[in-house]
Amino acid sequence: MNSNIRLGVTGALIAVFVIVAVIIIKIPYYIESNGLVKPAMEWKLEKTPDGLIINTLRNNTNNTLPHFSTTEFQRGDHMSFELHPANNAQQLIKKGDTIATIYSHLENFKLLELERELLDNKQQKIVLLSGDKPALVNAAYQEMLLAVSEFETQQKLMERTESLHEMGVVADLEYDLARNEYNIKKQQVNITRANYQSLIEGSKQEEVALIDARISALHGQIDNIKERLEAFTILSPIDGQSLVDLNRVQENELLAHIYGTGEMAVIMPVEMSQLRYFGEGMKILLDNGLREEILVGEIKLISNKAELLNQKQVVFVSSLIPNSENTLKPNMKTKVKIDTGEISLFQYIMRLVSTIYRN
């Protein structure tokens, strides 16, 4: 009898101890997955088959494009592209460093023409204010005659192009270009005729105002071209390194590709059943297999879209991890653990049973 009592007490104590241990003892709970390493920020400069230059800055942490722009060159423009020789895979690149220069012969020619026209107008204003009006009137008359001659030539060309277009011989684009040129020549006749009339009929004040208006318009056109030419100097928008991809096969021609080395994004799938156990801001532990030290990062974004992977519903999780020693490289595969914190042994057992049951 006493023996049975002792056994019962011992069993009860053991049961109490086990229950207390299951409730009190805390153990870490990790969610494991496989991650893909991407640059947190990367910048590409590409040329399409039809000649467009595409400039994209991508944030891989949230899969967005903070910056996107295209540069289109006019038909017939001779363009040259010069990549800065110092940009190689070994050298670190700073934000604002010159990566490449694009040279447009047509844009530079336009700039020279406008600057020469601006100088002519300034000289005309000086002559007008000095009282030497006959010379100015004669110059305006000659300019008007030249504009009329060019318009008549363009008018004949337009009539012929229009006839060929109706016959289907000339393409729509060529016809539109001819009509635009015709309208420009016609407008130039009106401008030069008005200029000449103002010189022979108007007062000096009106003449000066007309020249000032032309000078102001030319300044605006020159500034626009200079801004466009400045945009042809390609600067790096991020700190990083040039990415050399010897296995790249894409339609567009890659001119430059820079990725930020300071931080890397890790994209990983996590089963939807685990969603309730973790959230943004939690730590991740990354083992890249190249060093003993475990790298620590932080969850930045959890997708709200379900995907099917290996017959399981998952969501993709994006994390950010420091890469000061540049040990992580783009497109690396790595083992990742999400540190959800400590839970009781009872909770751990219940989660383990739930996972086994679902699988």
Kindly summarize this structure in a few lines:
The chain crosses the membrane at residues 7-31. By secondary structure, this protein is α+β, with helices and mostly antiparallel strands.
Main sheet: strands, sense, barrel: 6 strands, antiparallel, barrel
Helix and strand pattern? HEEEEEEEHHHHEEEEEEEEEH
Distance between the termini: 48 Å
Number of strands: 16
CATH fold name of the domain at 106-231: Helix Hairpins
Under the CATH scheme, which architecture of the domain at 106-231 would be assigned?
Orthogonal Bundle
The level 1 CATH classification of the domain at 106-231 is: Mainly Alpha
What structural class do you assign from the helix and strand content?
alpha+beta
Total helical elements: 6
Describe the model.
With 359 residues, the chain is α+β, with helices and mostly antiparallel strands. Among the domains are: 26-39 and 260-358, Beta Barrel (Elongation Factor Tu (Ef-tu), domain 3); 106-231, Orthogonal Bundle (Helix Hairpins). The chain has six helices and 16 strands. The protein has helices at residues 2-24, 105-130, 133-166, 172-201, 204-231, 345-358; strands at 26-39, 41-47, 53-59, 64-71, 79-83, 92-93, 98-104, 233-235, 240-242, 253-259, 263-271, 283-287, 295-302, 307-309, 312-322, 333-344. A six-stranded antiparallel beta barrel has the order 1-11-15-13-12-16. Strands 4-3-2-10-9-6 form a six-stranded antiparallel β-sheet, with no helix packed on it. A three-stranded antiparallel β-sheet has the order 5-7-8. Strand 2 (41-47) and strand 3 form a beta hairpin. The mean pLDDT is 78.
